[in-house]
User: Fold these one by one.
Assistant:
Number 1:
Amino acid sequence: MMINITEIIRKMMGWCPNTAILNKKEEEIYMVSYEGRFVDKIKGMGFRGFLSVLHLVFGAWLIITALRVLAKPQIFPWYVMDISFISSGILLAIGISSLMIFFNFVKSANVHRILALVNIALLMVFSLYLSLSLISGEFMYLNSIPVGEFIYSIFDRPYRYYAFGAVSLTLFTLIVGIPSILTFFNRPAGEKKTRFLAATLFILIIVFVSLSVYYLYLNKQKANLLEESGKNDGYELYRIDPGTFNPGIFGASNVYPYFLDSISSTTGHPVSKDTYEAIQFLRNRETGKVLTWWDYELEIKAADKEPVISYASEEIKQTIGRSSSLYDKFDSHEKIVDVSRFFTTDSEDTAKSIAEKYGANIVYVSRQRMNNIMIPVMLPIANPDIYAQNQDVIKSPDEYFNKLIKPTMGYKFNSSTELKYFEKIFENRDVVIYQLK
């Protein structure tokens, strides 16, 4: 019989084989029990757990997005600030509601379906509100960029002050609604917790009150910048001191020290010192109506004069950067076509007859945008077939400029050309003004 020396020594030191066996069994039982609890917990989460994670991710994303937009508000033009606050407020509400669903997912109840339904309703309001103020031209570049790049750009739209087109707005709304839609159609287990719902409503009320206070604060800051306003024409001219706001909001304040805005108009834009000088010059002259493109109607109203056209016609609303069925008051298409013909014709006699038709004796030209933006926009309005008739010309920038831009009256005004019926009465770097002789 062989003696196990090692075992004898271990026993002398107090080791008991029966105790070791029991400990081993307990360890195995503990490991199985722990593993079972861990795996069962994961399995127990199931679809509800997956939904809770979605609410966490989407809720955090929406709250961060809204706060980032609100942290750098664009206070000009007025309607952009309104869009940013209303849209961000809705996203904040959806995000907070989603986080509340996540933090209570262990004991889910039908109250989650109520919150999900509220989120869906808010998304419908979000989509309907922004659909009234869509950016133009999305369909024009939709086919010219990769699908992945377009999808990525959708998530960047809120940071560009919610500048959605019809397609991007639809996709953004559907993506944001995924957790709430799934939660609404998933019947949770458990009892209702009315206190939980009351807490959620209380938090949302605090958020919206805070947003309102912030909005009023910005408007007060904005009011302190007001330089002058027109009671009848409803324009506001704000002086922007250097360093007052982030220059990226509307242009460097040393270049554009003023902002011309109007609650009744969506054409607010920054104004240079030279442009303000032109406004003051025009204000001090007795004139009839003023011929200029609708982008500059506020400058004419700030000069206490009447522009022939104040806005685009509904037929050319695709040329408006961000048209809105809430704010827009469209002008007649006949006037738009006539003003387009006035600036794009190569005949001074034609231009004179159009000016006389509308009782206009002043021509106001903003020099920086006339040749490369305004004339190209007005050409197809005056002649819808102009580009189809000049396919070969538009392929060459030089030929395009020499044949289609240079002969126009708009180019001649912008170049300070001596004319037969029109006399130049004002000129600086940004503006040139002519008067009908």
Number 2:
Amino acid sequence: MANEAYEAVIGLEVHTHLLTRSKLFCGCAAGFGAGPNENVCPVCMGMPGVLPVLNRYAVELALRMAFAAHSEVQPYSVFARKSYFYPDLPKGYQISQYELPLCKGGYIEIGNGGQPRRIRLVRIHMEEDAGKNIHEADSSLVDFNRSGVPLVEIVSEPDLRSADEAGAYLRELRAILRYVGASEGRMEEGDFRCDVNVSIRRKGSAELGTKTEIKNLNSFRFVEKAIAYEVSRQVAILESGGRIVQETHLWDPVREQTRPMRSKEFANDYRYFPEPDLPPLRLDAEMIEQVKVSMPELPAQRRERYQHELGLSAYEGAVLTEDKEVADYFESLLLVGLNNPKTAANWTMSEVLRALNESGKTLGQAVPPASETGALLKMVEETTLSLNAAKTAFAMMCKSGRGASATVDEMGLVQVSDEAVIAAACDQVITAEREKVAEYRAGREKLFGFFVGRVMKAMGGKGNPKIVNDLLRRRLAGN
């Protein structure tokens, strides 16, 4: 195939809102969900004569991201005016950083077939967000609530080579942002969005091809599909003797294809120059050190700990640590005193994640407190409750909000471990199924599952499976 003769060269520019209560240069609320143009003031509306004042906490959050990404913090950085005209940009320019950003270099490590690979970063810089255009059937409106919300832009080197790698990079980056508390990374709210630069070249070539930029992708799936489409589009052009034109494209999720938006801008198109209303940002060593020592455990560190200290697999560690809330919930289950971390891991990856995904709610709303889920799992460990009964109880707990003990009692799910009761049920089944018993004793050992099923049915599914199996096997053997 033609695609196999080419290599994709992919770089990503990620814009993510910082988790501040107020905007980057004014005191307006930065939260999502307010009515149109409720969170605005003369500063973020770009009125004449107003002056921006930098949000210190936004700088601290940007530094957390920098340390997590192994980036080099610059004690001296400069805000710049990035000039362009668009209806959602009231000042006619955006306050950003360019030649002297807050952070340079760094990397994000991703798994690649089991082998970690470092995706290098160019820089991490701060900027303000623009507003939001809302296009109606007969009009276009602008909501300036988002105008001035603090962002960091994380720019990668063109080190990615496939749509899958790009997806892995974005998932790891979002996890890091959430772990350090820099951003919630809610893609559906525009918290975390991505511009993709894609080019192709012949395999073995070191020369970069002409790139296409795909703007404002807000889901991992769209990023992966857009890259796959764009690579195929560029291969088809080159194979037919055509030439790639440097353009900015948009992703059409309905047709699942990219389409041209405009010719690609270059840096000089934006006429960058230092923002005259803001002094250079000088960070003292004390502030940098305070942020550095306050850094929490990162996803990669947690995965490593889960494997080395808890004996979990690389896959289990990856699933459990993708979302910080889920990882915290898993660790809370361990505090209940479960003997086997695998039990808590399996339950979190199956029942907890299922309930979370099916509910469409937050973790705290979707599932019971970890203390109650842990109490349920302790009942399974202590053979008071069967695994299937625990799943039934957990589903009810998610709906009712009741505790483990109350739910198990109300539903009558307590497991029977009394050997005398189980022995009586075994004898009853053996007496009723004499022909099957004869067949079993004649060598049809596959019938054993039949007998187990009949005993469990006779006990309403409450018999302790281990004791049922042991007693039934002895009785069928004539002991």
Number 3:
Amino acid sequence: MGELKVFGLSVERGRWLYVALGALINMCLGAVYAFSVFRRPLEEMWGIGATHSGLPFMVFLGVFSVGMVVAGRGLDRWGPKKTGLVGGVLVGAGWLLAGLSPSIGVLTLLYGVLAGAGVGVLYGCPIAVSAKWFPDKKGLAVGLTVMGFGLSALVMAPLLELSIRALGPLATFSVFGGGFLALLVLLSLPMRVPPAGWSAPGREAGAGREMGAPVDLETAAMLRSSAFYGLWGSFTVGCLAGLMAIGIAAPYGQEVARLAPGTAAVAVSVFALFNAAGRPLFGWLTDLLTPKKTAVLSFSSIIVASTVLAMWGEGNPTVYFVGFSLLWLNLGGWLAIAPTATATFFGTKYYGSNYGLVYTGYGLGAILGMVLSGLLRDLTGSYVLVFPPVIGMAVGGLLLALFLLNPVTGEPRAIVPRRSSRGASGARRKGKR
């Protein structure tokens, strides 16, 4: 058998193209984070309030999270190419048809449900491909792949705003929908996983033992491991703590740090760069330090940043910039730690199903974080008092990581899929005969 080639290149060089393709796919999918540019034009066009104009975005995120769970099995069964094509068509069609919406309700169905489901189907594909092609550098590869999602709003928001001014909001949905449809289909076509039995070139023999045994657990077996609950709980708390703080970045800047509105808006754009940079940074750290140590580092920095903002943030722009930069960096970091740890602890064979379930932690964290930050502001009258609960949750997340975020090698035998025990029983009966 000849040497394996990837895009006509050696494996070591060619596999990085999958990371680039994945980052471009995520750049398209992450356009949802620029939805805020549509809200005022939609409110003016249909005479609706802020609550109604935010419905498509809220439904989109909810369907996205649920879609990850549903699509996970499809990814494992059909592979990234077919799954990616289905997701790309749904995303493009959702955006494209949203341009025909006569009301906010129809827009919520077409954009929020259809396009949201498409992102849920497609999001896991490039992550799974990167994790499988980079068993030696999972964290770095996955972090670079999802960095596109974090950077998307910076690129897409000004483009969408220009289009809305020239064409109107509905036509903009259709124009970008056509572009996303073509791009996502084209970018999904080359997606594939390594052949069975392939191993990374130059991989060190002892690497797997430090990070966890190279097992492939089915979802039912994963659910019987304490490692899953340590990962899911840490991921949920990390996202909840980060999103509680991140959701108030602009108003905190104006009300507490006493910045001008324009300066606070620029600051949020800078924070978005930290959010994007946190993905490859914490992915690399997960490779270097193991998931547990990286999680402890993340929660420790969240505690420090939140403490500083709570105690010395009043009228202090420097504390504001440093503290929120750290919080945004860590939220991006958890979107690399979680998928990397999933592959490290539970293997890559059933990655789609497994990470789809782990990702529900993000959905729960996002909802609770947004609700709690607004509720605490209304009850206390100050954004400063949002941070003591953030500190408490980060301490809880740190303890979860310390006690439960362990490799599956230390788990009880119950994590082994039941069909293995049945096969063993059958072998024993056959031996007796």
